[in-house]
Each structure stands twice: as C-alpha cells, then as structure tokens.
Amino acid sequence: MAHGEVLRVEKLNAFFGAFQAVKDVDISVKHNEVVALIGPSGCGKSTFIRCLNRLHEEVSGARCTGDVWLDGKNIYGPGVDPVLVRRNVGMVFQKPNPFPGLSVFDNVAVGLKLAGVSKKSVLEEAVTTALKKSALWEEVKDKLKQPGTGLSGGQQQRLCLARALAVKPPVILMDEPTSALDPISTAKIEELVVELKDEVTVVIVTHNMQQASRISNKTAFFLLGELIEFGKTSNIFTKPQNTKTEQYITGRFG
Ligand SMILES: Nc1ncnc2c1ncn2[C@@H]1O[C@H](COP(=O)(O)OP(=O)(O)O)[C@@H](O)[C@H]1O
Ligand SMILES: [Mg+2]
Q1: The dihedral formed by the CA atoms of 179, 148, 124 and 173, expressed in degrees to the nearest 10
Q2: For residue 163, pLDDT beyond 60
Q3: Fewer CB within 10 Å: C terminus or N terminus of the chain?
Q4: CA distance 183 to 208
Q5: Could you tell me the strand order of the sheet in which 34-38 lies?
Q6: Does ligand 1 lie within 6 Å of residue 218's CB atom?
Q7: Going from the N-terminus, what domains does the chain have, and what CATH number goes with each?
C-alpha cells in the first residue's frame, strides 16, 4: 500500500448472475479523506460500495472479482471471514435502520458485544464516546434504555452512525445517508462527516452534487458500472477531464 493509503481497490468487477454491474474499477483512498461517489441511478454505486465490506456476495447469485486492500489486508484474501470484514467496515444506509427491539444503548454497543467485549464500564465508555461523536449524546443521554426505533429519523441515522463508529473502523461506507432526511438532519450528518474525517475515512454515495462538493475531498464519477473519472472534488466540479463527467455535473444527462 502506498503511504497514507487506507483503501485500495484493484480491478473490481461485480456481477448479478450474468449481468455485470461494476466494471474493472481501480481506486485508492487515503486516510482522512472523504470520497463521494456520484453518477446516475443504476450506474453501480451501491453495488460498488457493497463490495468494499463483502455485502454484495450476500445477494443470491451475486459475486465479484478483484482485490480490496483495507489497511494492507486483502478483504478477499483466502480465509478472510466476511462477517469480521463487515464488523470492521461500517455502513450507514439510505434508510436509518436501528435494530428493532434494541435500546439506544444496545444499538451502539452491539458491535462491541459481538466482538466479545462484555465489561460494563468499557461498553459504557465506548457507547458514550460514539454518541458524542455522532452529536447525539445530549439528545439521548436520558433515553438510553428506550428503543432506538423510537427516535426521530434524523436521530436514528445519527444512532446508526454511532453504531458504526463504536467499533472504531478505519472506513465507514455511507449509501445516500441523507436522502430520507429533512434539511436540518441532513446538515447535521454532513457536518459530522467532515468532523470525523480525522479519525475515519468516509466513502459516501450521494445523488446530491452540492452535497458532494460541500463535504468530499475526492469525487468518483460512475457511469454504467465504469469509473469514468476520479480526482479532487474541486477539479471534478470545475474542470472535469472527461466529457461525460462534464455532461453529468452540468445536468445534461442522468
Ligand atoms: N439484486 C439485484 N439483482 C439484479 N440486478 C441488480 C440488483 N441490484 C442492482 N442491480 C442492477 O445493478 C445495476 C447497478 O445498481 P446499483 O448498484 O443499485 O446502482 P446505483 O446505486 O448507482 O443506483 C443496475 O443496473 C441495477 O438494476
Ligand atoms: Mg444506490
């Protein structure tokens, strides 16, 4: 891995049966970067990030080829347990999905408990820290025993972020995490992504180009499963090298 690199994707191809949704994608992501993935609906953004924590293969008939190096280890290497990969590469989905039946506290503690942490003081410390980092602590500190699903939509999404942060993953994947949220909740999530980049690398899918330009350092433009252009966000939005990128960001297709 190159200096400062946290994630390297090499020749990634992803399939649903015979249909190829991601084609030969190479990408390298450094520590402390926020990377935005943009492109028209159906271009393979979700499929791509689901290959980064081995979720793609959970779909019946789906598979992928290529290598994904996370902190120097190939997550597709022999003997690698996909469950452990998923535990360490956090994911926040479009629709907030706290675990039903679990309290606010347990929603955040669940990953640590699965990893074998059982000491109460350690769990309390980790849950408190994660909730503070997700800017949710003040709102839920008196509701830790209440169900996570009882929070508002925006709070639930920050709870899902806290759940992901609690295990201190090097990378968190986010798939359109604000598209179900109101503008204020959206702004909160955007602020958090920017604040958190010192400790976690975020790869975020967004259909909102203003959002990509507000929060990301690098942007990757996908089209029909191919990575068309990847570079500094400021360059992608002001002087794209590829005509297709230019057409997309100026709203001429997609
Ligand atoms: N479960 C699935 N089975 C078959 N094809 C799928 C499945 N999920 C997505 N696809 C197809 O793969 C392509 C990429 O989809 P997706 O990654 O969801 O795109 P995006 O997130 O960019 O909108 C699309 O053509 C879509 O129809
Ligand atoms: Mg998608």
Answers
A1: -30
A2: yes
A3: N
A4: 12
A5: 89-92, 171-175, 201-205, 34-38, 218-223, 226-232
A6: no
A7: 5-249 (3.40.50.300)
Tokens of 1: 């891995």
Cα(13) to ligand 1 centroid in Å equals 13
- What end-to-end distance do the CA atoms of the chain give, in Å? 35
Q: Which atom of ligand 1 is nearest to the CA of 59?
A: 1
- pTM higher than the cut 0.85: yes
Question: Which residue is closest in CA terms to ligand 1's atom 3?
Answer: 16
- Looking at the predicted structure, is the pLDDT value of residue 254 above 70? no
- Residue of 13, 41, 46 with the most ligand 1 atoms within 8 Å of its CB, for mutation: 46
Q: Mean per-residue pLDDT for 239-253?
A: 92
| 233 pocket-lining for ligand 1 (C-beta < 6 Å) | no
Of 199, 202, 59, 211, the residue nearest 133 (C-alpha): 199
Integer CA distances (angstroms), 222 to 36, 39, 201, in order:
11, 5, 20
Cβ(4) – ligand 1 distance below 6 Å: no
CA distance 203 to 45: 11
**Nearest CA residue ID for atom 6, ligand 1:** 16
CA distances to 9, 14, 63, 75, 233 from 17, rounded to whole Å, are: 22, 10, 8, 22, 34
Residue 100 has pLDDT above 70, yes or no: yes
Residue 18 has pLDDT above 80, yes or no: yes
